[in-house]
Design brief:
CATH class of the largest domain: Alpha Beta
Keywords: Oxidoreductase
Mean pLDDT: 96
Low-confidence stretches: none
GO molecular function: homoserine dehydrogenase activity; NAD binding; oxidoreductase activity, acting on the CH-CH group of donors, NAD or NADP as acceptor
Helix content: 40-55%
Protein name: UDP-N-acetyl-D-mannosamine dehydrogenase WecC
Largest sheet: 8 strands, mixed
Shape: globular
Order of helices and strands: EHEHHEEEEHEHEHEHEHHHHEHEEHEHEE
Number of helices: 14
CATH architecture of the largest domain: 3-Layer(aba) Sandwich
Bound molecules: ligand SAJ
Structural class: alpha/beta
Enzyme class: oxidoreductase
InterPro entries: 6-PGluconate_DH-like_C_sf, NAD(P)-bd_dom_sf, UDP-Glc/GDP-Man, UDP-Glc/GDP-Man_DH_C, UDP-Glc/GDP-Man_DH_C_sf, UDP-Glc/GDP-Man_DH_dimer, UDP-Glc/GDP-Man_DH_N, UDP_ManNAc/GlcNAc_DH
Length: 406
């Protein structure tokens, strides 16, 4: 039996995949409301294909509880928040989960940590904890780091078809973990050591951050001289060895905007490029604000409540608002006492910011300038309804005449 600890964005779909493939799974989370909801057959977040997978897993007998189970395989997928001021990882949930596992596990249990951690975290925080409890690593318990790679919006497909990394101290334990994941993962599973697994995960997200920063810097250069950045990227990408990403209003989510900071925090003298990329991406909400100001001036709009921001989620077709460019933008506005901008996102059903609308038409009726920050399919399918408005399209989804771009 596998006990999956932490049933959030990663733990839940992973637990469901194991259950669907016929393995006995118990999902544990300390959040009673969440367990209550899952036990009643109600999902806690939206994701393509998740409903179906959930149904299959429930039919196969997956159980949800707040209790840690006595078993020999654990998958730990608890959150790893980062401390904004120091840009360092806060390992408290991982440490606490490891400790509780040690309270109940069978001798020789394998602890697989899936949560993203900064390189070196297992040496720094987890091994000493285990040794401090009197457990001998490699005998009483075995450690594995198997960082996830799935992308919100396409998680279920990617769980099955992405290649995976398994880092272990011992090749036999690595092989065992690999076999376990191959119950649902149809792609290559690379077995390596724990430090390489930690580092490769953070490197993957940093690579994407740096490449998005390049696109964002191009957007700023092109804006300065009134060139069309999208056209330039489209042409440049015809070159067989060029593949520039898309500029946008900023980089959100709990991964790409966070992981590079771990490298900057640990290697401050060696991370010039990575730090600059982070700064460029973090500056994009301010760039959008500058664009809003230009348009307001040009059209003599003085009332901020005539501005409507579309999108609170950090990217299209998800309901996750962590580090979202819109939240960053509202924070910048707040710092400058610019209150009253209206906000709408069809995926966010609870009110999380001031002046948030729950109805799209009401929202559109009350604004003069629509700022598109998140390219949900919903807005792509409703562009007809916004044709008469001034539009700042930070995601390049509208091709009407007169639409302002980044
Ligand atoms: N973005 C751009 N321009 C682009 C692509 C993305 O501005 O061309 C923005 C998005 O709008 C969003 C942010 O970047 O705000 C991040 O979005 P994303 O779709 O690139 O990635 P995430 O954060 O949803 O998921 C990433 C993925 N990592 C990589 O692609 C290297 C995913 O595979 C990881 O599993 C995930 O981080 C994670 O959990 O670490």
């Amino acid at each position: 039996m596998i006990n999956v600890i932490g049933l959030g964005y990663i733990g839940l779909p992973t637990a469901l995949m194991f259950a669907k493939s016929g393995i006995e799974v118990v999902g544990t989370d300390l959040n009673e409301k969440l367990i209550d909801s899952l036990s009643k057959g109600k999902l806690t977040f939206e994701e393509d294909g998740l409903e179906e997978l959930f149904k299959d897993a429930v039919e196969k007998g997956i159980k949800f509880t707040t209790e840690y189970q006595k078993t020999d395989i654990y998958i730990i997928a608890v959150p790893t928040p980062y401390i904004n001021s120091s840009k360092k990882l806060d390992p408290k949930y991982v440490i606490s989960a490891v400790n509780t596992v040690l309270d109940v596990c069978e001798k020789g249990a394998v602890l697989i940590i899936e949560s993203t951690i900064s390189p070196g975290s297992i040496d720094k925080y987890v091994r000493p904890e285990i040794a401090g409890r009197g457990f001998e690593l490699g005998k009483d318990v075995h450690l594995v780091h198997a960082p996830e790679r799935i992308i919100p919006g396409n998680m279920i497909y990617e769980l099955e078809y992405n290649s995976r990394t398994v880092g272990a101290d011992d090749s036999l334990v690595g092989k065992k973990a690999k076999e376990l994941y191959s119950s649902f993962c149809k792609s290559e599973i690379v077995v390596t050591d724990i430090r390489s697994a930690e580092m490769s995960k953070v490197v993957e997200n940093t690579y994407r951050d740096v490449n998005i920063a390049f696109a964002n810097e191009l957007a700023k250069i092109c804006r300065n001289d009134n060139m069309d950045v999208y056209e330039i990227i489209r042409i440049a990408n015809k070159h067989p060895r060029v593949n520039i990403l898309q500029p946008g209003p900023g980089v959100g989510g709990h991964c790409i905007s966070v992981d590079p900071w771990f490298l900057v925090g640990d290697y401050p003298d060696l991370t010039n490029l990575i730090l600059t990329a982070r700064k460029i991406n973090d500056s994009m909400p301010t760039h959008v604000l500058g664009r809003i100001r230009d348009i307001m001036r040009e059209h003599k709009i003085t009332d901020i409540s005539k501005i409507g921001i579309y999108g609170l989620a950090y990217k299209e077709n998800v309901d996750d608002t962590r580090e979202s460019p819109t939240l960053q933008l509202l924070e910048r506005m707040d710092e400058h006492l610019a209150f009253g901008v209206k906000v709408y996102d069809p995926f966010i059903k609870e009110r999380i910011v001031d002046h948030q609308f729950m109805n799209f038409e009401d929202f559109i009726n009350e604004i003069e300038l629509l700022v598109i920050i998140t390219a949900h399919d919903h807005i792509k399918n409703n562009l007809d309804l916004v044709k008469g408005k001034l539009i700042l399209d930070a995601k390049n989804i509208c091709d009407f005449d007169g639409v302002y771009k980044l």
